[in-house]
Amino acid sequence: MNWFTKTFSSTLGRKFIMSITGLFLCSFLVVHLVGNLTLFRQDGGEAFNIYSHFMANNPIIRTMEFVLVAGFLFHIYDAIVLTRRNKAARPVGYANSHPEQNSTWSSRNMGLLGTIILVFLLVHLWNFFVPARFGELEGVPNADYLNLYSEVVLAFKNPIYVALYVIAMVALAYHLIHGFQSAFQSLGLTHKKYTPFIQKFGYAFSVLICLGFAAIPLYFFFFV
């Protein structure tokens, strides 16, 4: 093994990759939420359909999709590897060590939270990405883009899907609250002067982003 392979296959190397990919995925969440907020415009879905058309046909965005998929895969794979290594290094459970006194609930359940998010992501892609790219959605009259807005309205009238969406956003919030701070710590970006701000910013970011996403299906379910 050369030095590069050895470095990034080590525990520290994998934590570094987890941190970088995690922060990159945070930036994706911001961009995705900003675009989805066009759903609140009272224009019959025109702004959202135009946004969706742009995202589906812009060559830069299409290229970044491959980067995004790679980021997800690396993040998930490294999470699995690190979890197995931690369990192998600590074969005896926490039964008598009172972990709740030394760690947060989210840090002890990142695997569970990640699994919920992954299940939701697969369902979400099946409901929206697959029909938009490979299905036969209706086009908007007198326009050259598809009516993805109608799919949103239909999906968010399903109480099971809305419940899954909201549960996934709660899981994502807890996942981000721990992951955001942990990413900076793994990158060595800790300082007694700045770490408290990073913690507060990460908490606010996690809650606001997930509230923004959760508000969309709830709005369509109850008011549209």
UniProtKB/TrEMBL annotation:
Would the keyword 4Fe-4S be found if you checked this record's keyword annotation? no
What the entry lists under InterPro entries is as follows:
Cytochrome_b-558 (IPR011138), SQR/QFR_C/D (IPR034804)
**Keywords annotated in UniProt:** Membrane, Transmembrane, Transmembrane helix
Q: Where are the transmembrane segments?
A: 16-40, 60-80, 110-129, 160-180, 201-222
From the Swiss-Prot or TrEMBL record, give the protein name.
Succinate dehydrogenase cytochrome b subunit
Q: Does the keyword Cell inner membrane apply?
A: no
